[in-house]
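quick one, 331 residues, struct below
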Amino acid sequence: MAAAAKPVIIIKKKSGHGGGHNGGAWKVAYADFVTAMMSLFIVLWLMNTSQKVRQAVAGYFNDPRGTAKQTGSDQSGTSENLALTENNIANLKQKIEESIRRMNDLKALQNQIQITITPEGLRIELLETKDGTFFDTGSATLNQNGREMMRMLAGQLGGIPNRISIEGHTDAQPYTSSDGYGNWELSTDRANAARRLMEDSGLRDDQVSQVRGYADQKLRVPSNPMDPSNRRISLIVQYLTVDAPPVPADKPPADKSPADKPPPAAGAPATGAPPKAETDALPRAPEKTADPGKVAGQKPPAGKVAAPVATPAAAPAGSAVTRLWHRIHRP
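---
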């Protein structure tokens, strides 16, 4: 008898809508949720940051390639924490020179821009030519080159904590005007025009410390007062003062309390009233009426002893003061 054939069992599984690999729609929804949460936390962080940080973030997103001159748009990073001193001010000089070389419109003006390191700070001078390089001739209005240069410098200097002073200079050519407007007014107005444009382009409102107009009193070429290079604008990036200047050794600090003053040296004359302990230690001569035995040759009454004059208790025994006191009042 042939063996019985084994029955074939077929198992069919039915998959529901929630199982199996039926697509990744839920992953897209989850990614959107995570992105929305990240955006929320970024907005909350920006709301609690300073104005400088917000400007830097906005400058980066407005110009990620770093071609603009706004704070945060330069790909080399902001220089808010860079404090210029005598040791690192050469780095700023090199950075400004490289920025001028990168600007095609200002390459031809490199000879009209002088950057030097002085004891006062980094001096940036914009020299005029006969036809006018940065200002219109005889005017305090900046031309296209002047506006572009001021915006570039404001972008480089706006992130540093150092103060800046702006100077205006003219040549010795008299400025003819019917209303009395002369070189003094022209030099001051040019320096002030540079300040206004730089503050609108990146400088802080409190960063400019001085605006000075010198007219023709500080000529760049004294041998030729009419030289066009005497007409110039000077920007001085002042060194950052970290520590206060030391007090001279021959001048003690004022308003020093008596407790802080050192005690006088032995044998030195006292300045002012002596302390109470020293005053009590000095010998005092007895008053004439204190001893009744010495008044009109009378002796003190019987049974009564004249009060002795107090000896200097504070003085040490056997000291010169004590011996002098006993010699004077020896009976």
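The beta strands are 113-117, 121-127, 164-169, 208-213, 232-238.
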